[in-house]
């Protein structure tokens, strides 16, 4: 007879408890999965950095900006491009603009109509919401080729019937990722029944009272030298007041704790602006890589190819040509004169070190561990080994990237571009014609056309641009009578027709003269070519006259690249 087994089942495995245990296990498993899901979601949410919808550059653009293809400067490169040229605007990011239906005038009640008697001749109250609505509606109806994104509150104008109002806008068919600002004078009339209407809108920037004045900012140096690109990926706003005062170091302690990079000497001076930018961006890129403040010389030598004298001209301010306000907000930079003034005061007293580098083959990676306050790269007199951009060749090409997004064109020049486009109501087509071997500013343009006769141009345009259209002609041809055959079919416009925008009575002249310590500034060849190019790029249809004469510009960026 077999004995009774000494094994007894635990209570949890008894048949009557199995169902209950299974449910408990399933519940625990579900709870564990839930906790893991929450943890994973939290990690993703904390680390995910979404792309800005305004910036989706193509592979071609990205490769240009990162400068990974070839660090060596090519003297025959085409258009001098700056950061805003590569902000490929995603049009969906600008979908929310102000429609005429958004600003319908407030209807007048019967009581208000009865109270109208005796009000007809009173001054217009520019702060009245009804006046605001009437002015917004008039602006939207008048300027049909732009999208409005923001209106400023009206302010009193030059007399009792005048109000000034500002707004931010973009051209409807614009390819550039930029906003523009205009402020104009409105003449407002009140009828016998007190109905308000706008009887006249002034010219571009005629409403100066509505222009916001920036306070005198004194930018300090109490900030991290290297700023994340996502912090500075903002859109340029053309028409705002420019604050390009020089940054200063606020204290001796701030200066002592800073780390600086300075380039001096070399053969880059008085070369073309294309060459200058290629070298300057190498220096700025190295400063970013080393997490140092770039000490820069704001005094530029302008090459003879841009001057009316035909001679190289020293003493041109960086701020004449480029947006220094954007640069100093994007990167840590300091004017060379300010730096040496502070250095001479404090370097001996505080024991600040200087690390001198006289060979461009010393790579940025080898300087990463240098603790001295100042790294100074000194370049010799033998070309081409004394060009700054040589630092970014070879090994350095893979680690130093030129931060093109930090360099924008001067907003003072871009304001002239906006003014010219506004005078044509942003409703124009454009053609670019370069003629002859003596063409000035050749490095600003793509490959030149072989046939730029009026007959050839007309033949090209007849199937591209409708008769009667506004046609802006960007050209180096000084005698515009050459283009007279085009006037029978188009309303032609040339840069020189808008010289009031930079003459001695202009805002540009006043601003640059003040910037230049009271000395008037010449509107030189580089400025002319830059403005001419940028107006061309804002045409609804853009026709280049290079080897492939019939190719349109549809790159989606601020430039028409030449055919390869």
TrEMBL record:
Keywords: Membrane, Transmembrane, Transmembrane helix. It holds the Pfam family DUF7075. Residues 255-545 form the DUF7075 domain. The keyword Repeat does not apply. The chain crosses the membrane at residues 21-48. GO terms for cellular component: Golgi apparatus. Residues 121-206 form the DUF7074 domain. This is O-fucosyltransferase family protein. It comes from Escallonia rubra. The lineage of its organism: Eukaryota, Viridiplantae, Streptophyta, Embryophyta, Tracheophyta.
